[in-house]
Amino acid sequence: MSIVLIVNIIMSLAIALGGLCMKKYASWDDRSIGFRTKAAMSDQKSWSFANQKCGTLWLSSGIFFFLLTIAAVVFIQTSISDRMSGWVQIALLILQIAAAAISVVVVEKQLLSRSGGE
């Protein structure tokens, strides 16, 4: 098992766990867990909206990439070289990082449009 595969598994589970924490445990009273941007922390309604939206995106993308990583191991990597399978895992890792970052941008834009673009 390659290091990149292990990192992909850990990364996808960490993203899913982060999404679950945002959805279930982000509290307005204790804002140590959650989507912590200026727009999200401006009021309780924005805080709840941001954590529900981003939490859903992270939870679903984390589960998706975990399943995709496992599927790549089972179906793709058995039929290609070790070097090529490493590149497949690196591509999946880059996609996971991009998905997490893009979800933050998407939710932030939604927050700003809700508040009138302040």
Number of domains: 1
Structural class: mainly alpha
What is the percent of helical residues? over 70%
How confident overall, as mean pLDDT?
90
Instruction: Tell me the number of helical segments per DSSP (H or I, 4 or more residues long).
Output: 3
Distance between the termini: 49 Å
In terms of DSSP E residues, the strand content is: under 5%
Q: Which residues form runs of ≥5 with pLDDT under 50?
A: none
In N-to-C order, the SSE pattern is: HHH
Shape: elongated
Rg:
17 Å
Query: The biggest beta sheet, please?
Result: none
By DSSP, the count of extended strands is 0
**Oligomeric state of the chains?**
single chain
Salient structural properties:
single chain, 118 residues, mainly alpha
Overview of the molecule:
With about 120 residues, this protein is mainly alpha-helical. It has one domain (about 5-25, about 40-115). The protein is built from three helices and no strands. It has helices at about 5-25, 45-75, 80-115. α1 packs antiparallel against α2, α1 runs parallel beside α3 (about 80-115) and α2 packs antiparallel against α3. The relative contact order is 0.18.
